[in-house]
Amino acid sequence: MTGQRSLSLLLVLIAVSRGQHLHTGGEWEPGPCDDSEVRRLREQVTALERALGEAHARTYALLQERTARTAPLPQPPRSAPAFGSQGEYADCAEAFNAGRVRSGYYRVHPRSAPDAFTAYCDMSDGGGWTVLQRRTDGSVDFNRAWKEYKDGFGNFKADNSEYWLGNEKIHQLTIQGDYILKVDLTDWDGEQRDAQYQRFRVADEKAKYQLTFGAYSGGTAGDALSGGFHPETRWWADLNGMSFSTRDRDGDRYEEGQCAREDTAGWWFNRCHGANLNGVYHLGGPYSAGTDNGIVWYTWRGWWYSYRAARMKVRPAAFQPAEAT
């Protein structure tokens, strides 16, 4: 009602400011009006216009408040996907078959694992590879204790970062079925080679995360995990059936010392190794040290060459590569 009265008064003042007046019959007729009166009336019109604007703003604010009170309450965010639903996968092969064909980090939940975890999925090279380990720049220290190797460590955010997925997670992954291990290596000249093994598996903690694997099934880097093809080397360097060792828990067969401490890495050591992808990141390739403690794959460049990049990844043996589907 206040707004209507102000509007009526405004119309009257505008009429007067134009030099008009009202007869009692309601008809408009022109009348005399000096300049000072016009200025006064115009000032009143301006004040009324300002008051009307403020009233309009208050009315709009009240309407907004009423709308907010009567609007439905916002719904809580949906919970994270449950196991087996979209967003969690038994491994990266399952993610690939679900249409997630871009390399990157995914939530992985092996069937017997209590919880999901983050792992990098390599969707190139046929797709479906779960990356267990990655060395790229020496930014992560791999001389760690038993619990750290059990749980995993490193950078799980950057696409090309260094990490160890964790022995318990690797165990939960590889007991799901028959897995192939592929090792990707890059030397300091940029050359790339690989090695593949059938039936890769890691046992549980009670068995000291024992490593077992089948035949060397291909690649150009050679069979360093088995110690190569020379019987004398295989006797002390074959890693098949070896327990995991760290600086604080010795599981090797080296009676004169402790491989994990000498080579400053957690790994499956025999007496000690022909392959150690968790070794010291020596720049440039060839290195000198008290022991062969570099990132070693001896069947390609020997024990005294440390690679620029290394990666361990697994995929179910029954998985069909992208180009074959």
From TrEMBL:
It is found in: Secreted. One of its GO terms (molecular function) is protein-macromolecule adaptor activity. The keyword RNA-binding does not apply. The keyword Transport does not apply. Residues 1-19 form the signal peptide. Immune suppressive molecule that inhibits antigen-specific T-cell activation by acting as a major ligand of LAG3. Responsible for LAG3 T-cell inhibitory function. Binds LAG3 independently from MHC class II (MHC-II). Secreted by, and promotes growth of, hepatocytes. This is Fibrinogen-like protein 1.
